[in-house]
Amino acid sequence: MTQIDFYTHVDDKLKTACTLAGKAFARGLKVTVFCPDPELAQRFDRLLWTAPATGFVPHCAPDDPLARETPVIVDCRGDPLLHDEVLVNLRPEWPPFFSRFQRLIEIVSVDDGDRAAARERFRFYRDRGYEIRTHDLSKNSV
Q: Which residues lie below 8 Å from residue 57, measured CB to CB, with a gap of 6+?
């Protein structure tokens, strides 16, 4: 069953997603970052070129010729899905294919609208029997 983690009270969702993707990459895991649209995917891609400042997280789009070998996929379509280890969801709705991943990461900002959408996703997962862990980032960093 998919392990689900909610990271809450986040000031900057993209920066947090970069940090978590970088940590997963450092552990040898393959990550898919699911963005709501091409514009956010492009912003996330640019951010990964500079974060972390002392390293590089190899990443590309799913249609890149090297995508199957690249550890971090930045996607906004969900088709094709090339990896099944870690899914970082940056969309307001739950990803229909989340259960094929070993781990799902949900990042929740301090924005009221984002928090309301996250509560809906939380209920959706909980009502289907998933155990959910929460990490309050207002108390510490990622």
A: 18, 21, 22, 25, 48, 51, 71, 72
62 Cβ neighbours under 8 A, 6+ residues apart:
73, 75, 77, 79, 80, 81, 82
Where b means 16+ CB within 10 Å and e means fewer, 17-39 reads bbbbbbebbeeebbbbbbbeeee
Q: What is the pLDDT along the chain (142 residues), one digit of tens a residue?
A: 999 999 999 999 999 999 999 999 999 999 999 999 999 999 999 999 887 667 789 999 999 999 999 999 999 999 889 999 999 999 999 999 999 999 999 999 999 999 999 999 999 999 999 999 999 999 776 6
CATH (domain of 54): 3.40.50.10110
pTM of the predicted structure, to 2 decimals: 0.95
Range of the domain at 82: 3-100+112-135
**Residue 2, amino acid:** T
By three-state DSSP, how is residue 119 classified?
A: helix
In a domain? residue 107: no
